[in-house]
Each structure stands twice: as structure tokens, then as C-alpha cells.
Amino acid sequence: MNSKLATGLTILELVMILAISGITLGVGIPGIASLISANRVAGQVNALRSALALTRSEAIKRNQHTVLCKSADGKHCTKSGSWSQGWIVYIDHNQNRKRDLKETLMLVHGELANGHFLRYRGFGSHNYIVYRPTGFTRTNGTFTLCAPNSPGRSRALILTKTGRVRLSRTRPDGSPLRCDNTTNSAS
Fold first, then answer.
1. Nearest one of 146, 126, 127, 130 to 138, comparing CA atoms
2. In the predicted model, is pLDDT for residue 25 greater than 60?
3. Element (H, E) at 109
4. Rounded distance, CA 131 to CA 114, Å?
5. Contact 187, 177 (CB under 8 A)
6. For residue 109, what are the β-bridge partners?
7. pLDDT at residue 88 in the model
8. d(Cα 125, Cα 67) in Å, to the nearest integer?
9. What is the three-class DSSP state of 157?
10. CB under 8 Å to 28, separation ≥6 — which residues?
């Protein structure tokens, strides 16, 4: 009689594998969710930082006033709503701070995803940033990106009159950023 070795799992081995897998997934999934949330915030902050850099570089390169403004439709600037709706960058030939159809549209960014909220607070208009041909702005201010249910992930981009931005995780006094979803509240 030819006997073959039996292969397979016993019930006890299968239960142990399922228990170990359950524990591993239970520990790992929250870490993965946290990583995904952090990457989403970083991606949205980087998109805004890139838009500001593009606006500044185009103003210098073209020797024209260039505007970054909030936009709900991706074609025109809006005074209502929040920066969370999206923004556009365009060359403002006539310097009226309103995009006319003949003015070159450089960038369109749509609505922020995942319930993130973006607010701008600064001197002058809360609706747009104008870069002059020198690369400077007439204002300084702070963009605050707030992550829902994760105030510790909120980030601020601080704009100076020289046109440069820097990233911050706190308010100037070191306290946490405030994230109450109102358009012109303090950052």
C-alpha cells in the first residue's frame, strides 16, 4: 500500500492564522488611514504652493500683473464662497482684478477633496492675490488648510510681500491653527 503524506491545515491551525491576521489588520489599518490622510493634506498644500509659485514666476517672466483668485467655475474670480471651491491663475492685462475672456488662463484647480477647507486671511482682498512684474505682492497673509476631524493635520501657507511662501503647522504664537469653517475668520 502506497501512502501519501496528508497536507493541509487543521481547524486549530486555521483559527490561529485567522486570529493573527485579524490582530495584524486591526493594528495596521489605522496607521494606513492616518498615512493616507496626511498625504492628502500634503498634496493639497503642495497644489496651492505650486499655484502661488506659478503666479509669481509668470508675473516676472511676462512682466505683467498675474492673479491667483478663488473661483467656483474655473473661468472667473468669485467674491462669494470660500477658497475651498477652487482657484485660477491668469494674466491680468488691464489690472482690473477680474478675468476677462481675452486674458490668458494659466491654471485651474477644482474644489478641494475629502471635506478639506481652505481659508485666506490677509491685508486687502480676501478673494485674490496679485503678483506684480517684480514678483512682489501688495499684501501678506495666511492660507490655512483644515483637515476634517484632524485639526493636528492642518497647515498654513504664509505669504510675504516679497511673494514667497512658507509652511507652518502653528499660529505665530505657537498655538495650534484654528479651523472653524468660516471664510474670513482668524487663522
1. 130
2. yes
3. strand 105-109
4. 30
5. yes
6. 87
7. 97
8. 12
9. strand
10. none
